[in-house]
Amino acid sequence: ADTTGTLYLRPRDDQVAQGSRSSNVTFTLHSNETAWDQLQNLLTVQIDDDDEAGITVEVGGPTTIAEGSTTWYTIVLTSQPTADVTIAVSVEGDSTVDASPTTLVFIPELFDTPQSVTVTATEDDRVEGDLETTLSHTSTSTDPLYDTSAGGVSIDSVLVTVVDDDTAGVVVYVPSDPLLLSEGDLDTG
Q1: Residue 149 three-state SS
Q2: Pairing between strand 64-66 and 158-163?
Q3: What are the two backbone dihedrals, phi and then psi, of residue 148, each rounded to the nearest 5 degrees?
Q4: What residues of the chain score a pLDDT lower than 70?
Q5: 106-126 burial, b for 16+ CB within 10 Å, e for fewer?
Q6: Residue 23 main-chain phi, psi, to 5 deg
Q7: Of 130, 132, 137, residue with least CA distance to 154
Q8: pLDDT tens figures, 146-189
Q9: Cα(72)–Cα(65) distance, rounded to whole angstroms?
């Protein structure tokens, strides 16, 4: 009697961006009839990868801060890399902000654990007006999908505006209140 059956194949979801690919599956028939026993058939299966290499930057705090204040943002990978990924944080131009840390390292096993960057606006006494600062990012890895210099992922920048809390002015020192002067005198305090 002819017997048919259905075989379901499910590829393993590995969270690694590998792109679409094909794989071979070999079927071996086991039968009591010698002519059919150990008969093999090869089937090529197309696997569509649902993982995409990427780096997400998510701002957690305000992007406009006063001198002396802090804000923060997080960075996380969207898929598991095949090797460690190092992300460098750079403050662009002459800036009144500092970023810490300036290097983040993601290991493959913890690729989906966000890491924070703290941005601190320097307090100064200069009247400069509000200043915009860009924090940019580059990544290096032996996984070419996560190496920006090898044409891998691109990483969003973060724009922070620092509100200047200083004002221009002149301070007048009055040695006594009220200031008493006689004609021809010069009070030097």
Answers
A1: helix
A2: parallel
A3: -65, -30
A4: 1-2, 11-15, 18-22, 49-51, 94, 127, 166-168, 179-181, 184-189
A5: bebeebeeeeebebbbeeeee
A6: -140, 150
A7: 137
A8: 999 888 889 999 999 888 776 667 777 777 777 666 776 665 65
A9: 11
For residue 167, the one-letter residue type is T
Q: pTM value?
A: 0.67
Q: Round to whole Å and give the CA distance between 143 and 133.
A: 30
**Amino acid of residue 106:** F
Burial class (CB in 10 A: 0-12, 13-18, 19+), 151: exposed
Q: How far is CA 151 from the centre of its chain?
A: 17
Start-to-end CA span in the chain (Å): 119
